[in-house]
């Protein structure tokens, strides 16, 4: 069966498909684009919300004569295209590609760039699954990997000079220590040795920062988190501003096939419409919680870039619109207290993941970061991570303080 390349509407030069008239202009406010980019009303009925195109294939008006360019849904589906156009607009990219998960997006991007013999430099606190993907899938295939402290530009410069990598991969704020690294400076350093600079923008979301505008070459997302925003869909995305790389990623999206389903794409679009208001509230709640927990006797450290004492505060204030909804705490009572605390909150539910409207608590050592235990990416064992939701902040503070006071009583 002959299948033409993706009819992505988002600018792949291979594109054979439709480019729906954009309902939003590039200069418009972020919140406006979050609601309108790629979201034309349905022309046949006037339905304000474009329907979910739950179809695997498209009728041809004659052999090779496609309606709107659509042929087979792995290559292109209007619902997926509407999400991709929206993501490209929000990150200020030329093209976006959506996938079945964040890791599927990362895998596809890395396949488009790397070949055996190439080297990857990544932050020493990237998402554990990203490290595992490179370390256990790409390294056995012949790629080499090293990690570096991304907040130390001298260390990065030395590592780049020594290894001449093909990819420099960073995440800011980082998980779970909320370290902030300088995207513009790192992009310049990466480019000085010919590396492609990739930013995992999952924690910040495009509402808080847009790495392409700071010089990065590619942005990846787990759209499972803030973009979807409601803990009800798994997804990922790659956003690019080079036509050449877009062509390669677009081909692999089609040729490897880890695409997002139309329903998942639709749910993600629905989530993104409220991204701006959600992230404002996530950020305000997290800041209030961080301020309240500093100095609590059961807490030895609060890691939140919105606190003036945080080492990345000044940089975050320049680089980000607000400080986001993620924070982590270290407990005075050590690992046992951290575990007990993570198991004793009520509104903060014990679960992996982040970025949803509901607050979550996690113990990274045994949960999100279990795969990096014992490596240089291991995290402190007295550390608890909070994904602060958009519930009433008074209730959230009460929940945390009650649990922390309870730990004191146990001691
Ligand atoms: C969750 C996450 C990923 C992986 O995304 P999935 O959708 O779970 O595959 C990648 N990077 C970061 C920062 C994440 O939080």
Q: Please give the oligomerization state of what you see.
A: single chain
**Main structural class:** alpha/beta
The CATH topology of the largest domain turns out to be: Aspartate Aminotransferase, domain 2
CATH class division of the largest domain: Alpha Beta
Q: What number is the mean pLDDT? A: 93
Helix content bin:
25-40%
**How many DSSP E strands?**
12
Low-pLDDT parts are: 1-21
Tell me the strand percentage band.
5-15%
| Corresponding CATH architecture of the largest domain | 3-Layer(aba) Sandwich
- Work out the count of structural domains: 3
Principal-axis shape equals: globular
Task: Please give the largest β-sheet.
Answer: 7 strands, mixed
Write a structural description.
- The chain folds into 3 domains: 1-101 and 224-273, Aspartate Aminotransferase, domain 2 (3-Layer(aba) Sandwich), CATH 3.40.640; 116-222, Type I PLP-dependent aspartate aminotransferase-like (Major domain) (Aspartate Aminotransferase, domain 2), CATH 3.40.640.10; 277-410, Alpha-Beta Complex (Aspartate Aminotransferase, domain 1).
- It is built from 13 helices and 12 strands.
- It has helices spanning 30-36, 78-91, 102-113, 128-138, 153-163, 183-192, 205-208, 243-256, 262-272, 275-293, 313-319, 334-342, 393-410, and strands at 95-99, 119-123, 144-148, 167-171, 196-200, 218-222, 236-240, 299-303, 326-331, 349-350, 360-362, 383-387.
- The strands form 2 sheets. A 7-stranded mixed β-sheet has the order 1-7-6-5-4-2-3, with helices on both faces.
- Helix 5 packs parallel to helix 6 (183-192) and helix 10 runs parallel beside helix 13 (393-410).
- The longest helix is centred in the last third of the chain and has 19 residues, at 275-293.
- The N and C termini lie far apart (69 Å).
- Residues 1-21 have low confidence and may be disordered.
- Bound molecules: pyridoxal-5'-phosphate (PLP).
- Pyridoxal-5'-phosphate binds next to helix 3 and helix 4.
- Residues 101-103, 127, 129-130, 171, 175, 200, 202-203, 222, 224-225, 234, 236 line the site of pyridoxal-5'-phosphate.
